[in-house]
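User: Fold this; C-alpha cells only.

Assistant: Input:
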Amino acid sequence: MSHDSHPAPQNAGSGSWIGRSVPRVEDDRLLRGNGRYVDDIALPGAVEAAFLRSPHAHARIESVDTSAALAAPGVVAVWTGDDVADLPAMLNKEELRTPPGLAELLDPVVRMTPMPLLARDKVLYVGQPVAVVLAENRYLAEDALELVDVRYAPLPVVVDPEHALTPDAPLLHEDLQDNTAVAVATRTGDPEAAFSGAHTVVSEQFEAHRYVASPIETRAISAQVDPYSGRLTVWSGTQTPHRLREAIAHTLGLDPAAVRVIAADVGGGFGQKGILYVEELLIPHAARHLGRPVLWREDRNENLIASSHAREQVHRIELAADADGHLVAVRDRITVNFGAYNMTGLVVPYNSLCHLLGPYRVPNVDIDVTGVLTNTTFATPYRGAGRPEAVFAMERAMDRLAAKLGIEPEELRARNLVRPDEMPYATGLVDRSGKPQSYDSGDFPELLRRAVARAGVEQVRARQREGARDGKHLGIGFAMYIEATGLGPFETARIDIAPSGRVRLAIGAPSQGQGHRTSMAQIAADAIGVPLDVIDVVGGDTEATPFGVGTIASRALVNAGNATHRAGRLVREKIVEAAARRLGIPADQLDLSDGVVAAKEPGGPSITLAELAGRAPLPGTPEPTDGRHGTELSETVHFRPPGFAVASGAHAAVVEVDEHTGEVQILHYVVVHDAGNIVNPMIAEGQVTGGIAQGIGGALYEEMIYGPDGQPRTGTYMDYLVPTSSEIPDLDMDEIFTPSPMNDLGVKGLGEGGAIAPQAVLAGAVENALRSFGVVVRRGPLSPSRVRDLIRTAART
C-alpha cells in the first residue's frame, strides 16, 4: 500500500497534516524501554495482591479457613467473600444497558447476573476469585494462597451452550428460570414465502470456536489514597477509564470526583480490557481499607483462564436464492456461549445479528440469537466483537451456495452486492442504537474487483487444473464484511493553549497502541493551524477530561477525532479574535498558520501563539479582562455521532494445503479496505495488519478448549498456540476511500476491521484446496490435525 496515496479530507489545505504518514511520536519512548505501564509505577510502601481461584467449574463453597494464611510471613490481610459481602456485586451497567429504541422495537430479553467480588456461596467457572491475599510482595502472597483451605462440594457441570438450554441442564444462577442470558429476534419481509419459492436453498451449521485476546501485557491495577486529601487514585490498563471510575465510586460509596483513574501505557487491550472486572474494584477497596498502596498484576495462566474469552457461537444458517444466484432470503439461528456471567448483554449477540447480511442485498430476513450461560469463563467483546463470527457463518454459507449453483464464489458475491448508487442503503434491520440500520457510504463492488484482481484468480485456477504437486493442494478463498463503527454516545476533547504557546489536547479515549498521540495531534494541528510538534496529547486520565467513554468498538477516531477537530476549530476562532484585538485588525483580515497569526495583507503585522497566549502586564500575572472577552484560549467539545460510519472490506487468500501433514501455508493474502478518509496511512496500515494477524491466529492456531468437566485444557502457551511474526505472511494491501457523511472528518473506524474476515477467507481457501476430497470446513482452527481429520472424514463419506 502506498503511504502517500491517501487524499486529505475535503476542504483540507495543501499543508494539511491529515493524510500524512507521520511517524508515531510515542514509538521512540516505547522502543527505548521508557514505557510507563502499571507495573512500572512504583508506589512506596505498596502491598501486593494475589487471588485464590476456583479449581472447580461448578461447586458449593462449604467452608473457607484463612487462619494459616493470615499467620504466614509478610501477610497483611486475607479476605474471602464474607469479608467483602457488604460491597455490591459487580455489574457492567453501561454494557448491559439496552437502548430504548431497540427495547421498544425488538423487546429483547437481557437477564442480569451480578458477580460477587469474591465467590461466597458457590463458584461457576474454573478461575473465579474465591479469596485474595495481600502481602508485602507477590512471592509471599502466592505462598500464603497455598495455605487457604477451601472445602468444595462439586456440582454438575455444563459447558455446551446448546445442552445448557435443555430442561435437564444444571442451572447456574438459581434466581433465573433457565440458563438464557439474552435473547433477541428480528424479521424483515416474508422469509417463509421466500424460502418456499426459492430455486435453491442451502442449510448449514457453522461454529465459531472460543479463543482469547491474549495481550502481551496482562491485566494490572494499582491504587493509592492521598493521605492529605483522601482522594483515591487508580492506575489501570483499562480501555474505559471513565466507566471504571464510576464503577469504583459506586462500589465504594464515593463521589466520582473523589476518584481519579489513569490509563497508563497499555500493552494491548483488544476488548479484553474494555470491560469491568472484580479485581479492579477490590484493589481500590484494599488501598482504602489498609491505608497503603496496593498493586495486582495478572500472570499468564490467570489471563488465559480467568480473563474474558470470546468468539464461541453456533450458527444454523440457511440461504435461499433464485436460479441466477441472487439472494432472496437468509435465516439464522445463533447460539452464543456467554460463559458463567452475562457481562456485556446484547453487545456481541446483536453485533452478530446486525452484521450478518454484510455487504449483500437480502430482502427477506429471519435471525434469532440466544446468549447462553455455561460453566466456562465469561465471554465479552474481542477485536471485531461478534462480527468475525457472523462473517464466518455468512461467507461460508455463500461458498456452499456457490458450489451448489455451480457459480464461482467471487461471481456469486458480485451479483448480490449493494451498489454505490444505492447509498445510503437501508437493510430493514435495526442497528445497535435502536435506529433503522443504514449503510452511510461504500463501494462494495470495487472492493471485490480489486481483491479478485490482486489475488490473480485466473492464474491460481490455471495452477489448480494442473493438479496437486507432491500432495500439496492449492486453494483460493474470498470474504467480505461491513463494520458499523463510531459507536456513541459521545466522546470528549479539551484543548488548552499554554502561555508558552504549546497546545494541550486531552481526550477521553486512552490508547492501547492505536497511536492517538500522533493521529489526534495531526487532527488538532490541522484544525488549529499550528505545527505538529507543539501539541501534547493526554488520553485516558479522568482528571484531564471529566467525561468520556473509552477506546472500544472502533470508535476513538470517529468520536474523539471529531471532538478534537471541532474543539480545534473553536480554539482557532478564539485565537484569531484575540489576535485581532491585540493587533487592532479585523479578524476576517487575519490568517493563522504554523502557529503565527498574520495579516493577510503582505507586510502586515503578526503575532505568534506564544506571544498571544503568554502576554501579560507583569511576568506571571494574567492579562486584565472585562468579563466579556476572556483571555483563556481553551475549548471543550463533546462529540455525539448522529449514526454509524460503515467501514467495509474484501479479503482474498491463496493457500497451499499438504494432504499428508495437514499444514496450511498462506501463499498470498490480499486485503482491500475502506475506512473513509485516512488520518495517518502508516498507523492505519499497522492497525489493519495487527487485526489480520489476530484473525489468522484464530483461523489456524488459537483455541481455548474445555473438557466436559469444565476444566480448561489450554491454560499455558505450551497448549494455546499464538502465532508469531514468522506465521504472518506479507500482506498485499489496497484501499478505497468513501468518506462518511456522518462526521466532519469523513472518517470511519478501522481498528477492528482486519480481524473480521481472516477466519472466513482462510476456511474458504482451505475448503477450495481440498474440494477433490469433498471437504467442507464448518469450524476452526484449521490446525494440521483438524485438516487431516477433515480429509479422513470426507474420504469415508
